[in-house]
Specification:
about 160 residues; mainly alpha; Ferritin; elongated
Length: about 160
């Protein structure tokens, strides 16, 4: 993204910093949107004796991701950039592995989601560091908020995998 494609704003960050943060936010937006759709896929296709509990948990986790999507997209636009948030845009650049198609036993799908939540949590922590180094405390704080929520979601998923 070039600065000339950025809208002007009175936010007191250098244009190059705003541009870099918009790119970072859009990378996280793509991964988060991908994780949202994969969590819904798990919600719809989970099977097994824990179906009801996991079906509800996955729906709750997907709902939380919607809130993260808004935070990421709205921060990108507040900085003068454009949010790239369609499914096709996200699929083209997501760094997460694809959720296998079909029906999945409860614990198998929990493992698949836990791996993906852990990957997004790790990239979110890296984004905190990147935003901090760039001097954008507000974007770093946004990523910190999302990081805490992802860690909590991962805790809920991993609790199902404990023997």
């Amino acid at each position: 993204m070039n600065t000339h494609h950025m809208r002007p704003t009175r936010i007191d960050l250098a244009p190059a910093t705003r541009e870099a943060m918009v790119e970072l936010l859009n990378r996280q937006l793509a991964d988060t949107l991908d994780l949202y759709t994969q969590t819904k896929q798990a919600h719809w296709n989970v099977t097994g004796p824990q179906f009801q509990q996991l079906h509800e948990l996955f729906d709750e986790l997907a709902g939380q991701l919607i809130g993260h999507l808004d935070l990421l997209a709205e921060r990108a636009t507040a900085l003068g950039g454009a949010a790239r948030g369609t499914l096709r845009m996200a699929a083209a650049v997501s760094r997460l592995p694809e959720m296998p198609a079909g029906f999945h036993d409860g614990l198998a799908v929990v493992r698949l989601l836990a791996d993906r939540y852990a990957a997004l949590a790790a990239s979110t922590r890296a984004a905190i560091e990147t935003a901090t180094r760039a001097g954008d405390a507000a974007t770093a704080d946004l990523f910190t908020e999302i990081s805490r929520a992802l860690d909590k979601a991962l805790w809920f998923l991993e609790a199902h995998l404990q023997a």
